[in-house]
Amino acid sequence: MKRAKLRIGMARFLNSQLSVAGSVLVLPALLFFAIFFAWPLVEIVSVSFTVSQVSRGTMPTAVLADPAHLGVLWFSLWQAALSTVLTLAAGTPIAFAFARYRFVGQRIWKALAGVPFVMPTVVVAAAFSALLGPRGAVNAALQALFDLDQPPIQLFGTLPMILLAHVFYNVAVVIRLVGGFLSAFNPGIEEAAASLGASRWQVIRYVSLPMALPSIGAAAALIFLFTFTSFGVVLILGGARFATLEVEIYRQTSQLLRLDVATSLALAQMVITLMVSWASARLEARASVPLEARRAGDVGKRPATLPARLLVIGSLGFIAVVLIAPLAALLFRSLNLEGGHVLRYYSALSENMRGSLFFVAPQTAIRNSLAFALVTAALAMLMGLPLAYAIARGGGGQRPESRHASPGARLLNVLLLLPLGTSAVTLGLGFLVAFDRPPLDLRTSVVLLPVAHTLIALPFVVRSVLPAIRSFDPRLREAARGLGAGPLQALRHVDLPLLAAPFAAAAIFAFAISLGEFGASLLIARPEYPTMPLVIYRFLSQPGALNYGQALAMSSLLMLVSAASALVIERANEQIGR
Amino acid sequence: MKRLTVLLATAGLLAACAVQAPPPRAPEQTGPAAPRSLTIMTHDSFGASEDVIAEFEQANNAKVVVLKSGDAGSTLNKAILSKDTPLADVLYGVDNTFLGRALAADILEPYASPALADIPDRFKLDPQNRMLPVDYGHVMINYDKAFLQAKGLEPPASLRELTEPQWKGMLVVENPATSSPGLAFLLATIAAFPEGSAYDWRQFWKDLRANDVHVSPDWSDAYYTQFSGSSGKGPRPLVVSYATSPAAEVFFSEGKLAEPPTGNVEGTAFEQIEFVGILKGTKNRDLAEKWVDFMLSKRFQQDIPLQMFVYPVLPAAEWPDVFTKFGQPPAQAFALSPEQIDQGRERWIEEWTRIVLR
Questions:
Q1: ipTM of the complex
Q2: If one looks up domain B137-271+327-357 in CATH, what number appears?
Q3: Rounded to whole angstroms, how far apart are CA atoms B63 and B83?
Q4: Burial of A350 (0-12, 13-18, 19+ CB in 10 A)
Q5: Does the distance separating the beta carbons of B307 and A253 come in below 8 Å?
Q6: B223·A543 Cβ contact <8 A
Q7: Per-domain boundaries in chain B
Q8: Which residues of chain A make contact with B256, given a CB cutoff of 8 A?
Q9: Structurally, how many domains does chain A consist of?
Q10: Which residues does chain A have within 8 Å of residue B230's beta carbon, measured at their own beta carbons?
Q11: Chain A: residue whose CA lies nearest to B169
């Protein structure tokens, strides 16, 4: 009896120690946000609303009273909502197919589906143009087939083009996040419902969807914010008639140098981001129920029935047609088919033909890109996982231990997404005015690049693993602890193996966010640490077949690097979790 | 867990080592003094030959650091915002469309370089020599030779002709609010159809819009995705680009093209002049002066054409063959003064946006 009491006492003591340790582990992330996000923002806001060369001191209320700006705000909102719904509609069935069934080449399909996420928009525009443009392959074929004078598909510069591109870019977020979540948890509950007489539709409607809801909510919030702040897609594929807030902020800054207007719009963007973040945090906390976790790999089965086969084939068909076909068009165009060596544009990448000071060997660009992406992924995971655990412990939900939700954790969870909805232009100028004096004279430091990438990757990591951590039945961990495992041991032998898939998804996207240089090119006055997207942009800034060919060759290498790194991360994660 | 930590930490360390930093310049123990560093702030399109820069570094015991800071507008903005604690010693790449803003912001120190003596006066737009001309170029319409030939069309004879039905749906321009050649072309049309004349630039753009002009956000998209004469094989045969683009097509064809596949449409050009200046508060004024002199010297000026595809302002600088053959500047170009541009820009862009896009 005494011993039992002692044990309980010990457990309580350990738990309190753990939460102290938890707070300490969360500190790096909080400090990071304070220094690299909050401070530059405060600085740029104060510069923007002081009358000077760069500002007429117009206040946000006056800026937003302008109907033109309200129109831009409204467009940003509804196109993002529509893009999110479409992406979820396309991605959720695919996520389900990947989580519940096993088939040949599954990992490779998943890795390929993630490639669009890192591609520069101008290259994607070229790809869509090669396929769907007025002189693209599809139109040419249709014209020849039906003897038409005019190309039948006129997508460029239309809303459907923007939506298609947003689906193209973001569907992998749904596949990985929702798929990762589903594959971490036991399908037995679905089978039980089916054996109790539920129809296939009823199982999906009443079991699978509610179960996956927290992860669908997380994916929705992230995709909404990516498309809400969409820049390149709207600018390049939408044509000039469409403008999001982010486009307008760039316009007001770069050409007009009206920081008062630009920062006002950026603040409006942030307010909406907070609202979205709050709504999704609430939904996710409410919808999460404790679920029985399974080892990754134990969940899927072969698609034996006809509907299952159709689902898998349909999913792969979607990936092949919508995601891979445009990329394949790029790959095709990167080959030199007009005389000379077929791989001429690839070999030319390694030649400094004009003796240029700014020549970048392809291996240098690849190494820099990989290095930044590794640092970003490591920073985002090391700071993000403790943060996610802290929020899960304190942030509400159905579990007894989180009933006494801490307001701090909830607030943190809502504030977390703010960097995703913050204009890169505004934040970049904030860096410029904030880090201009010791001890943090970082304006031209290479450190700012991974820092900027981590600002996006860190919230992504936390939000993407949170649903899985919340749904993870704590009794498993408690059982391990009860058997004498330390908190780290429990984490290592219980959480890690069982949550391998959601964790891999988070790491892969943290890596990809950096690889694709999310808006960071606008950020900083950089010395030469050229990455792959930068080299692509550089080739595309001068005319000539060789420049175009080399840009596409470098883009093809970027695809390869992206797919390969996704495979490696997934594999590494499984090894660690073993 | 331990393995995970170790793995992540190792990855981080590896990555930190792998980022290829510029070779560290160890202070030379043997030489009289360590090289001083000179920082040049510029737009992303700046280019130069390795050996040309090395020559300057050796002659002046200096290390040149180049800060590429985005497009021309963004670069100037960053220079203005960091006025109190300058990021660099020298600012290069402000053109005549942004000159007024740069001078008004009071971020530059005057420097009457002796090298200016050899440069024609028409390029010197700042009498106080805070900004000195380095190179010039022309934004103008390029046409796709094969496309026009197949349709039996002659290139347009004037800007006005672009509003006629035979050119419907054929022209690509860049958005002046997001692109520097786009702004230059808008300025050309404002100079060609001045405000207050019977047919002004607003009417011209209304007609262009009615004639289905396509607006791209930037040059890369306009040229490679929309223009039929580039390797991107877009749908439209006329694009706002540069007078040197046809020459560049030949140069970058690796000998496959003897003639450019594209040509310039006379009577559509706007002249852009790019400037260099010494930033206020530099601690390396003497070295910065040397750099400005160097940019105006024959050595650097002759390097300009094939690195940046613009013309050197120094008449004595020799042009490469591909320039003399295919890259001649247009006979005539439109112009507006920097003051006119500075006063009109914001209003013109807003009006243009309403007329063409809304």
A1: 0.84
A2: 3.40.190.10
A3: 23
A4: exposed
A5: no
A6: yes
A7: 34-136+273-320, 137-271+327-357
A8: 338-340, 545
A9: 1
A10: 543, 548
A11: A134
